[in-house]
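Let's do one together. I've listed all components of the complex below, 1188 residues spread over two lines.
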Amino acid sequence: GWMNKHLNLVPALVVVFYELDWDEPQWKEKQSECATRVEIVRQSLQGRNTKVAVVLIQKKTPLPPGEDVIASERAAALCNACDLSGKSLFVLPHTDHLVGYIIRLENAFYEHAQTYYYTEIRRVKSHKEFLNKTTHQLLFVRHQFKIAFFSELKQDTQNALKNYRTAYNLVHELRAHETNMLEIKTMAGFINYKICRLCFQHNTPLDAIAQFRKHIDLCKKKIGSAELAFEHAAWMSKQFQAFGDLFDEAIKLGLTAIQTQNPGFYYQQAAYYAQERKQLASMLCNHDSSVIYPNPDPLETQTGVLDFYGQRPWRQGILSFDLSDPEKEKMGILSLQLKEKNVLHSELIITLLSNAVAQFKKYKCPRMKSHLMVQMGEEYYYAKDYAKALKLLDYVMCEYRSEGWCTLLTSILTTALKCSYLMAQLKDYITYSLELLGRASTLKEDQKSRIEKNLIKVLMNESPDPEPDCDTAAVKASQKLWADRVSLAGSNVFTIEVQDFIPFVQCKAKFLAPSFHVDVPVQFDVYLRADCPHPIRFSKLCISFNNQDYNQYCVVEEAYQKSDILEQSSQGTMCLVPGKTRKFTFKFVAKTEDVGKKIEITSVDLILGSESGRCVILNWRGGGGDAASSQEALQAARSFRRRPKLPDNEVHWDSLTIQASTMIISRVPNISVQLRHEPPALTNEMYCLIVTVQSHEDTVAKDVKLTAGLKPGQDANLTQKTQVTLHGTDACDESFPALLPDIPVGDLQPGEKLEKPIYIRCGTVGARMFLVYVSYLIDTIVEGKEILCKCHRDETVTIETVFPFDVAVKFVSTKLEHLDRVFADIPFLLMTDILSASPWPLTIVTTQLQLSPSMTPVDQLESYVENVVLQTGESASECFCLRCPPVTNASGVATGCYIISWKRSSPVESVPVVSTVITLPHVIVESIPLHVNADLPSFGRVRESLPVRYHLQNKTDLVQDVEVSVEPSDAFMFSGLKQIRLRILPGTQQEMLYNFYPLMAGYQQLPSLHVNLLRFPNFTNQLLRRFIPTHIFVKVRLGMTEDNSIMS
Amino acid sequence: MADTGRAGQTLENYPLYIRSVPTENELKFHYTVHTSLDVVDEKISAMGKALVDQRELYLGLLYPTEDYKVYGYVTNSKVKFVMVVDSSNTALRDNEIRSMFRKLHNSYTDIMCNPFYNPGDRIHSRAFDNMVNSMMMQVC
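Okay, and this is what the predicted structure of the assembly comes out as:
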């Protein structure tokens, strides 16, 4: 009553706006008009303490106060006329700075309003002072609350909070009785709401929560009238909801909540009380339909509104605790109960729960959210909104399933099953039944057995028995639905993917081997196991593969009569006995196209029921396994538990592992491939590799093909430096390939042997891998089916390539002394030395020296090592006498090249000859001014004259002064010029003749010739020694030989 | 009279052992234990990895409801123990709860030491049953 009055009806301040300028010509008239207006307003307020203010709207900008004399005079006059204080008169100049003036006005009005509420508070306080604690307890609360309320209006929140708190304490000091309980609770709730709101406003959420907890603890037990207990529950629910709303509001304004303290908990609690209310209501308001609503309505009051909140309409304003009119009281309670009956409880609960769900989602409580969603689902179920219930339950089911909380899952499934039964939702009904019968369900055996019977009925296209604890009316309706379903033809096949739940049939498929040869039938087992209480029959088991052609071979089917289905024979193949593992073995022949491919089981389908009745296809993706099996497999793998012994034909379910794919590999070849060769290979030779293929097949090996050559995937340089050919007689060049693919060889009869030489030319040294791959086709019979298999066998061999020989070349003088340079026009020797490095004997067919144009041979260049056979480590040397005309080029002269034609020594004539070209080194050619050569016999004899002729050739274009001297030696006497000085013209030669007379036998030093060139001081005797001999062998006289022989 | 539900859980969060007295409202306790894992998860992740070794195993009061108090405890191998007690039972102070958890942990360790116990399997142990029973008797 009064709150609305003070909030909306009684103003704190009334402002009269009047258009009047200070320099208004008709001032008097205007002033009186304004005064009348103020008077009218005053009269209409009727003695309230409401403040009145006047605002003059003026067109001119006012002068600063005190300067405008007329203005101040007139203002005073106006105030008098209107009976106003000077403070309540304002001026609003209608000029540029309107906003600024308005803000100033607003503040002024606010001040006035505050004064008004202040006086109101003073007024109430003065009332309170007259009160007595014992007799006016109720009024105490009222006044305290009023003070707080006015403080709040005054926007003095701190004081308001303080006063509310006092009021709250006062409420609980009141003597509570059944009759006024509702009123007290209403008041307490109201004040509590105000306190909590202010606490949140002051950003002290903990105070708010503490206040709320206190409030709840105080009021929890104040149930009041037992017949109206639902009212208390409703009130509690309301308290929690209101607090939740407040909390949520505060969060929206910036408060942060945490996981364990958020509005969700309050909404959740509100929902609990709403549920309690529903239960109490259903207990207390179960009147017969014959009970009619009392007339006149005791809840009606004359005014239509209550004088005080929380009082019973039929007992207004009565303060005494005893019941004055029991009959009236009864009618009142009855009418309240009947009204409660019409309340849609479920809707309330669901709203609260969904509020809570939204909150918990925000604060990372997924499990709490799921739990509340389960409750929502159940509530929808009670509200008979089965579709929504199913949707919610289905949504959370997987979470409980994945976390492995079987008890909770079972309870949810049971509710879901009821929903699907009541809606006659076939597929859902079957799915839930399958899972409730499964190993994750914690239902008792009798329950399971009941569900299984129902499932069998459904499979036979009959109506199942109703689920227990269902509303009878709803069951009736659903039976009708089921009957419709049964009569409806078509759409009787349901495919159920079992991946996402835990059905009562488990399946594991297993290929017997990870790979099968194509000529062996592929075998695999499918293991099935049922967890339901009774044996169950199925009509078909079929397996699908990634290659659908095989599907037809893997079907187990048994057409059975409808009457058979209830027959509990456990002997049939198509029957799954609980707890026993059934094995089905399948066998098929893989196609030859699938060689090298993977065969995968894409799904296993188990068909329950029949086409004639109703068909349920359980579909396992891959090789079986459902939502729980991976975890179980993990546990089984960890387990050390010993398994009890079982008969041979049975297996332990846990020990089975799924093997859903297998490889098809080609048939094992039954031929032998042998390689014959003589390693290592020699560089550039046509290396012969003899491939021997022998067939051990029973039938003809057709279309034998040989692939031989460098194994792919090696160094790219090797490919270029390796050539393979079938024809060894003629040498191949770079254009030949490194790998010869698919050389047709023809057919091979059983036992036949085939030899094929392959020639390989390796251009560089090093190891190479060679591949010899033989493929063929053969007909075989597998399982009575003839197939053409492709077989192959490959061999690899690593062949080392080495240099056949080392060639050393050196230049020597005619005296066989090593030369690091040669002299122009003076003959020298080129010596080649071929050292065999091959482990096999080599035949040097011929050699050839190809000289460059700058070199000239001194004599015939013919090969001396033709047809020489070199064993390992042996060498063949040749020597050529060459001369080099003088050149200007100082850096060196190309000599030419040396070509060796060789082959491996072999009895076979056809071995091709390899030519190896060796480029000879460059040589530095130097010219000398004088060349001396000596003409002397190859040996001398003691005391026999030894004529020696020295030729001195001038190689320059100058006339040379030469000093020649001969130094005597002990072993010789000599005649001739001992010392001479002579001139040699350019291009001519001088001859010097000496007659040496050996005195001693043996290898003796000759008298040495010294030549001194006056023009070329560099020309030393050292150089000279290179050209002329220094020693000679002296034999004994002929007559002495005989003596010697006698002596020896 | 105190209602006490307890459960030990592994990392995968499925119950290894769950037991409540009295048994009439068991499902509700299962739900309570299950929902409390939200808070346990949050607390474990908040603790971080730095202090794994010296962290306190006892998590304290997980969250208050109107009627029950839910306490949590996590072993180093992340096995969770949850205890739900009547909130009106004022005899149980933090210290008692802590020692009860320690007892549970010890008993659990004994089970793990059993070579025939397969980690991750549901617990079926008479010794563990007896220990839990005696603890529940004490509280009630």
